[in-house]
Amino acid sequence: MWRALRIELSYSRWWLLGGLGLAVGVAGIVSLIFFAVGAQGPPHHAAAGIRGMFLMMAPLIVGFVILTYRNEERRARLLMAGPITPRQLAGAAVLLPIVLFGIGVVAAALTLGVDSLVTGRLEVESMHIVGYVGGLILMMQLMGLVAQESIAAHRQQRLRAAVTGWGGFVVAVLLLAALTAAGAVAQGPMTWPMLHLGNLVVAVLAGVGALALYSHRTDFTS
Protein backbone atom coordinates (compact mmCIF):
# COMPACT_ATOMS: atom_id res chain seq x y z
CA MET A 1 0.00 0.00 0.00
CA TRP A 2 2.74 2.46 0.96
CA ARG A 3 4.62 1.65 -2.23
CA ALA A 4 1.53 2.39 -4.32
CA LEU A 5 1.01 5.64 -2.40
CA ARG A 6 4.62 6.71 -2.97
CA ILE A 7 4.29 5.97 -6.68
CA GLU A 8 1.12 8.08 -6.93
CA LEU A 9 2.80 10.98 -5.12
CA SER A 10 5.94 10.68 -7.25
CA TYR A 11 3.90 10.59 -10.44
CA SER A 12 1.97 13.71 -9.41
CA ARG A 13 4.82 15.73 -7.91
CA TRP A 14 5.01 18.25 -10.76
CA TRP A 15 1.28 18.89 -10.61
CA LEU A 16 1.61 19.31 -6.87
CA LEU A 17 4.57 21.70 -7.07
CA GLY A 18 2.90 23.66 -9.86
CA GLY A 19 -0.34 23.92 -7.91
CA LEU A 20 1.43 25.15 -4.78
CA GLY A 21 3.45 27.66 -6.80
CA LEU A 22 0.28 28.97 -8.45
CA ALA A 23 -1.42 29.22 -5.06
CA VAL A 24 1.48 31.26 -3.67
CA GLY A 25 1.22 33.61 -6.63
CA VAL A 26 -2.55 34.02 -6.23
CA ALA A 27 -2.19 34.59 -2.48
CA GLY A 28 0.41 37.26 -3.22
CA ILE A 29 -1.84 39.03 -5.72
CA VAL A 30 -4.76 38.90 -3.29
CA SER A 31 -2.55 40.34 -0.55
CA LEU A 32 -1.62 43.27 -2.80
CA ILE A 33 -5.29 43.89 -3.54
CA PHE A 34 -6.16 43.83 0.17
CA PHE A 35 -3.31 46.25 0.86
CA ALA A 36 -4.49 48.57 -1.91
CA VAL A 37 -8.09 48.75 -0.70
CA GLY A 38 -7.00 49.25 2.91
CA ALA A 39 -9.82 49.59 5.43
CA GLN A 40 -12.40 48.87 2.74
CA GLY A 41 -11.12 45.31 2.42
CA PRO A 42 -12.10 42.30 4.55
CA PRO A 43 -11.22 42.18 8.27
CA HIS A 44 -7.85 40.72 9.21
CA HIS A 45 -9.09 37.25 10.18
CA ALA A 46 -10.90 36.87 6.84
CA ALA A 47 -7.95 38.19 4.81
CA ALA A 48 -5.53 35.82 6.54
CA GLY A 49 -7.98 32.94 6.12
CA ILE A 50 -8.36 33.64 2.41
CA ARG A 51 -4.58 33.64 1.90
CA GLY A 52 -4.21 30.39 3.80
CA MET A 53 -7.20 28.91 1.98
CA PHE A 54 -5.44 29.09 -1.39
CA LEU A 55 -2.48 27.09 -0.07
CA MET A 56 -4.83 24.56 1.53
CA MET A 57 -6.80 24.12 -1.67
CA ALA A 58 -3.88 23.64 -4.07
CA PRO A 59 -2.85 20.05 -3.13
CA LEU A 60 -6.47 18.93 -2.84
CA ILE A 61 -7.30 20.26 -6.30
CA VAL A 62 -4.38 18.18 -7.59
CA GLY A 63 -6.17 15.24 -5.95
CA PHE A 64 -9.18 15.84 -8.22
CA VAL A 65 -6.84 15.77 -11.23
CA ILE A 66 -5.44 12.43 -10.05
CA LEU A 67 -8.96 11.10 -9.52
CA THR A 68 -9.93 12.11 -13.06
CA TYR A 69 -6.96 10.43 -14.69
CA ARG A 70 -7.05 7.30 -12.54
CA ASN A 71 -9.64 5.60 -14.75
CA GLU A 72 -7.87 6.51 -17.98
CA GLU A 73 -4.30 5.53 -17.17
CA ARG A 74 -4.97 2.39 -15.14
CA ARG A 75 -1.65 2.35 -13.34
CA ALA A 76 -3.37 -0.10 -11.04
CA ARG A 77 -2.82 -2.92 -13.53
CA LEU A 78 0.90 -2.19 -13.63
CA LEU A 79 1.13 -2.09 -9.84
CA MET A 80 -0.78 -5.35 -9.51
CA ALA A 81 1.78 -7.05 -11.75
CA GLY A 82 3.94 -6.94 -8.62
CA PRO A 83 3.08 -7.92 -5.04
CA ILE A 84 0.41 -5.24 -4.52
CA THR A 85 -3.14 -6.47 -3.85
CA PRO A 86 -6.48 -4.77 -4.66
CA ARG A 87 -6.99 -3.99 -0.95
CA GLN A 88 -3.60 -2.28 -0.80
CA LEU A 89 -4.47 -0.26 -3.90
CA ALA A 90 -7.76 0.68 -2.26
CA GLY A 91 -5.92 1.82 0.85
CA ALA A 92 -3.56 3.94 -1.25
CA ALA A 93 -6.49 5.50 -3.15
CA VAL A 94 -8.17 6.53 0.11
CA LEU A 95 -4.97 7.65 1.82
CA LEU A 96 -3.84 9.83 -1.08
CA PRO A 97 -6.42 12.61 -0.50
CA ILE A 98 -5.61 12.50 3.22
CA VAL A 99 -1.89 12.92 2.52
CA LEU A 100 -2.65 15.80 0.14
CA PHE A 101 -4.81 17.34 2.87
CA GLY A 102 -1.83 17.08 5.24
CA ILE A 103 0.39 18.86 2.71
CA GLY A 104 -2.24 21.57 2.45
CA VAL A 105 -2.35 21.92 6.24
CA VAL A 106 1.42 22.44 6.36
CA ALA A 107 1.36 24.97 3.50
CA ALA A 108 -1.57 26.88 5.03
CA ALA A 109 0.05 26.84 8.49
CA LEU A 110 3.22 28.35 7.04
CA THR A 111 1.13 31.02 5.30
CA LEU A 112 -0.73 31.90 8.49
CA GLY A 113 2.58 31.89 10.39
CA VAL A 114 4.14 34.37 7.98
CA ASP A 115 1.00 36.49 8.17
CA SER A 116 1.16 36.52 11.97
CA LEU A 117 4.83 37.56 11.90
CA VAL A 118 4.06 40.45 9.55
CA THR A 119 0.89 41.66 11.24
CA GLY A 120 1.55 40.52 14.81
CA ARG A 121 -1.87 38.85 14.91
CA LEU A 122 -3.04 35.24 14.65
CA GLU A 123 -6.77 34.74 15.03
CA VAL A 124 -8.58 31.44 15.58
CA GLU A 125 -11.23 32.49 13.07
CA SER A 126 -8.62 32.38 10.30
CA MET A 127 -7.76 28.78 11.16
CA HIS A 128 -11.45 27.86 11.16
CA ILE A 129 -11.85 29.29 7.66
CA VAL A 130 -8.86 27.37 6.32
CA GLY A 131 -9.83 24.17 8.12
CA TYR A 132 -13.42 24.27 6.92
CA VAL A 133 -12.50 24.83 3.27
CA GLY A 134 -9.86 22.09 3.40
CA GLY A 135 -12.20 19.65 5.12
CA LEU A 136 -14.95 20.39 2.62
CA ILE A 137 -12.71 19.69 -0.38
CA LEU A 138 -11.29 16.53 1.24
CA MET A 139 -14.81 15.27 1.86
CA MET A 140 -15.83 16.05 -1.73
CA GLN A 141 -12.81 14.20 -3.08
CA LEU A 142 -13.58 11.07 -1.03
CA MET A 143 -17.20 11.30 -2.11
CA GLY A 144 -15.96 11.51 -5.70
CA LEU A 145 -14.03 8.31 -5.13
CA VAL A 146 -17.22 6.61 -3.88
CA ALA A 147 -19.08 7.78 -6.98
CA GLN A 148 -16.28 6.56 -9.24
CA GLU A 149 -16.22 3.13 -7.62
CA SER A 150 -20.03 2.88 -7.69
CA ILE A 151 -19.93 3.48 -11.44
CA ALA A 152 -17.19 0.86 -11.80
CA ALA A 153 -19.27 -1.63 -9.78
CA HIS A 154 -22.24 -1.09 -12.10
CA ARG A 155 -20.08 -1.62 -15.20
CA GLN A 156 -18.69 -4.82 -13.71
CA GLN A 157 -22.22 -6.11 -12.95
CA ARG A 158 -21.67 -5.93 -9.20
CA LEU A 159 -25.14 -4.53 -8.83
CA ARG A 160 -25.43 -4.95 -5.06
CA ALA A 161 -22.19 -3.04 -4.57
CA ALA A 162 -23.34 -0.33 -6.99
CA VAL A 163 -26.68 0.11 -5.18
CA THR A 164 -24.92 0.15 -1.81
CA GLY A 165 -22.40 2.71 -3.05
CA TRP A 166 -24.97 5.09 -4.49
CA GLY A 167 -27.24 4.60 -1.47
CA GLY A 168 -24.36 5.46 0.85
CA PHE A 169 -23.56 8.48 -1.32
CA VAL A 170 -27.12 9.83 -0.94
CA VAL A 171 -27.15 9.17 2.81
CA ALA A 172 -23.81 10.98 3.18
CA VAL A 173 -25.10 14.00 1.26
CA LEU A 174 -28.22 14.16 3.45
CA LEU A 175 -26.11 13.79 6.59
CA LEU A 176 -23.79 16.57 5.47
CA ALA A 177 -26.74 18.82 4.71
CA ALA A 178 -28.22 18.17 8.17
CA LEU A 179 -24.97 18.83 10.03
CA THR A 180 -24.21 21.92 7.94
CA ALA A 181 -27.70 23.26 8.57
CA ALA A 182 -27.26 22.61 12.30
CA GLY A 183 -23.97 24.50 12.19
CA ALA A 184 -25.58 27.40 10.39
CA VAL A 185 -28.40 27.55 12.93
CA ALA A 186 -26.07 27.19 15.91
CA GLN A 187 -25.00 30.41 17.54
CA GLY A 188 -21.69 31.42 19.08
CA PRO A 189 -18.92 28.88 19.73
CA MET A 190 -20.84 25.87 18.37
CA THR A 191 -21.06 27.07 14.75
CA TRP A 192 -17.57 26.13 13.56
CA PRO A 193 -17.39 22.79 15.46
CA MET A 194 -20.65 21.65 13.85
CA LEU A 195 -19.45 22.63 10.38
CA HIS A 196 -16.13 20.81 10.90
CA LEU A 197 -17.97 17.78 12.30
CA GLY A 198 -20.11 17.54 9.16
CA ASN A 199 -17.04 17.43 6.93
CA LEU A 200 -15.25 14.95 9.18
CA VAL A 201 -18.12 12.48 9.58
CA VAL A 202 -18.94 12.38 5.87
CA ALA A 203 -15.23 12.12 4.92
CA VAL A 204 -14.77 9.11 7.22
CA LEU A 205 -17.91 7.38 5.92
CA ALA A 206 -16.90 8.07 2.31
CA GLY A 207 -13.38 6.77 2.93
CA VAL A 208 -14.66 3.53 4.43
CA GLY A 209 -17.17 3.09 1.60
CA ALA A 210 -14.59 3.76 -1.10
CA LEU A 211 -12.18 1.30 0.53
CA ALA A 212 -14.81 -1.43 0.53
CA LEU A 213 -15.94 -0.81 -3.05
CA TYR A 214 -12.42 -0.61 -4.47
CA SER A 215 -11.30 -3.74 -2.61
CA HIS A 216 -13.98 -5.81 -4.33
CA ARG A 217 -13.29 -4.76 -7.91
CA THR A 218 -13.31 -7.70 -10.32
CA ASP A 219 -11.17 -5.95 -12.93
CA PHE A 220 -9.25 -2.72 -13.34
CA THR A 221 -10.02 -1.83 -16.93
CA SER A 222 -12.94 0.52 -16.24
Give a summary of the structure in a few sentences:
With 222 residues, this protein is an all-alpha fold. It is 85% helix and 0% strand.
How much is the average pLDDT?
83
Helix count from the secondary structure assignment: 8
**SS-based structural class?**
mainly alpha
Number of strands: 0
- Shape type: globular
Helix-strand topology string: HHHHHHHH
Our count of domains comes out at 1
Output the radius of gyration: 19 Å
Largest sheet: none
N/C terminus separation: 21 Å
List keywords for this structure.
single chain, 222 residues
Give structural notes.
The chain is mainly alpha-helical. The protein has one domain. Helices cover 85% and strands 0% of the residues. The chain has eight helices and no strands. It starts with a helix and ends in a 7-residue tail after the last helix. The mean pLDDT is 83.
What topology emerges from the helices and strands here?
Layout (H helix, E strand, L loop, with lengths): L1 H10 L1 H25 L6 H30 L1 H6 L5 H34 L4 H32 L3 H27 L5 H25 L7
Helix pairs in contact: 1-5, 2-3, 3-5, 3-6, 5-6, 5-8, 6-7, 6-8, 7-8
